[in-house]
Write a structure and sequence with these properties.
Radius of gyration: 21 Å
Organism: Anaerobutyricum hallii
Pfam families: EII-GUT (PF03608)
Protein name: PTS glucitol/sorbitol transporter subunit IIC
Structural class: mainly alpha
Shape: globular
GO biological process, one term: phosphoenolpyruvate-dependent sugar phosphotransferase system
InterPro entries: PTS_IID_sorb (IPR004699)
Strand content: under 5%
Number of strands: 0
Helix content: over 70%
């Protein structure tokens, strides 16, 4: 009987812990993401849809802008996970590759810009702690992490673009290469 009681108690504890996690999200990450979403939508409203769409068209034309500049600026300005939402201004074909690049930018830029992904700062701090224990400056490591990340994130986006092209051929579909707006 004690085994059944312990199993039932453990089972209910699972839901209690899940509820505590949910409450932490409701009081932590969800309001932050909501405020970032409101900020992004306010900026878009102030700049105008056409200005944002024009920027997306300019960025779409060049892989360096598409997978290096736009994801980096989005990660820096909006942080994780809001940086990923800038993909909504990309044509369908480029969205998977933008997502791949932007996702990595939210991680590799964390050493110098911890506001980008504060929830993963513990990874950077763990590595930096080892460097600090050796009485070394962490800044060179952070700069190297950023620079290697910029290159790797760009490659990630570009390789994903080639993968998307391959999957298009394999599946016999053709994703749009132009941004669909309410004007067109």
């Amino acid at each position: 009987m004690n085994i059944l009681v312990k199993l039932a108690s453990g089972f209910m504890n699972l839901f209690t812990l899940g509820g505590e996690q949910f409450v932490s999200w409701v009081t932590g990450i969800i309001p932050t993401v909501l405020m970032l979403l409101l900020l992004m939508n306010a900026i878009i409203a102030l700049a105008g849809d056409e200005s944002v769409n024009k920027l997306a068209r300019v960025c779409t034309k060049n892989p360096i802008l598409r997978y290096l500049v736009l994801p980096f600026v989005s990660a820096f300005m909006l942080g994780n996970p809001m940086a990923l939402s800038m993909g909504k201004f990309m044509p369908e074909f480029y969205k998977p590759a933008y997502y791949a690049s932007a996702t990595y930018h939210c991680h590799t830029n964390n050493g110098i810009f911890p506001h980008i992904n504060a929830s993963e700062l513990f990874v950077w701090l763990g590595i930096a702690n080892g460097i600090s224990t050796l009485k070394l400056d962490t800044t060179p490591l952070a700069v190297r992490y950023l620079l290697v990340g910029l290159v790797a994130n760009f490659i990630s986006g570009w390789v994903t673009e080639f993968t998307t092209r391959y999957v298009e051929k394999q599946q016999g579909v053709k994703l749009s290469r132009t941004l669909k707006t309410s004007e067109n």
